[in-house]
Amino acid sequence: MSDAAITIEGLRKTYKGGKGQPEKHALKGIDLTVPRGSVFGLLGPNGAGKSTLINILAGLVVKTAGRVVICGFDQDKHPRQSRAAIGVMPQELNLDPFFTPRGALEVQAGLYGVPKAQRRSAEILDLVGLSDKAEAYARTLSGGMRRRLLLAKALVHHPKILVLDEPTAGVDIELRQMLWANVRKLNEQGMTIILTTHYLEEAQEMCDEIAIINHGEMIAQDSTANLLGRMDSRTMVIAPDDPVTDLPSADGVEAALREDGNLVLRYQSIQTSAEQVLEAVRQAGIRIRDVRTEEADLEDVFLALTSSREDEAPVDDHDQPRRGMHRVRL
């Protein structure tokens, strides 16, 4: 059995333009491998092509060219088996308001051809915390409960791969923690998880490996640790005993003063050591009350890899912007 849950080769999707309009290239030859049993992050700015890629995996959009293999099933040769291997929790709350959670799961299982003896609606409802709402109409559920139901629907056919498309967008902290606890549990049981999110802190914490796409092109795929390792930048923040009048000067060190009076020094660790930075501070006659250092996080990597092409127009308008939790993001 292959170590890859999903293999994508040369994937292209082109939309015909309107009258007098050029074609739109949503995906431009994507090559991607998702390791089996991993929590895999699929990141990119708005309009990068993430939703197009997910919809192709789910069998909802027909690709223009390329090859997609899901759990060993070529999507062109075995479309039914490849679709059955993947479950998708979409961004949109596309629920029938007149179905109960139990009824929605039973219908979804029937659509996938799951025999009644193999259905586990009660178990799934318990997993997502909806057992006490099993017989309530979906229209009476809160927004957070509806998102739980979307996750439950994605699990009814026992998929080997679960795609979470912006799962925590607009949800409260309690639901976010519950969702990630469930994701960890499913992953421990062997399920491969693919996550798209604009909350880069979540991706950094949850994902073993990350791919970043921009304007339909793959610009990076590596382990989370290796992606973070690409950024050698360091930031030293010093709280001085007295107001700073002269900024320290040293080769490879960029110094700036914040409005709160703290001194910020940026440098590359491969060129300049922390001791050299501190020596420059001493030479400037600055007495240190407190000091801390910061390393690059996933947001820094993301911005560095995508900012060079910000001026290009997006081609996939399905990715809606979300507000970040703690740090500014694209």
UniProtKB/TrEMBL annotation:
Biased composition regions of type Basic and acidic residues, renumbered to the chain: 309-322
Single GO term (MF): ATP binding
Keywords: ATP-binding, Nucleotide-binding, Transport
Every ABC transporter domain range: 6-240
PROSITE patterns (UniProt xref): ABC_TRANSPORTER_1, ABC_TRANSPORTER_2
Top-level taxon of origin: Bacteria
InterPro entries xref list: AAA+_ATPase, ABC_transporter-like_ATP-bd, ABC_transporter-like_CS, ABC_transporter_ATP-binding, P-loop_NTPase
Region (Disordered): 309-330
Protein name as it appears in the record: Multidrug ABC transporter ATP-binding protein
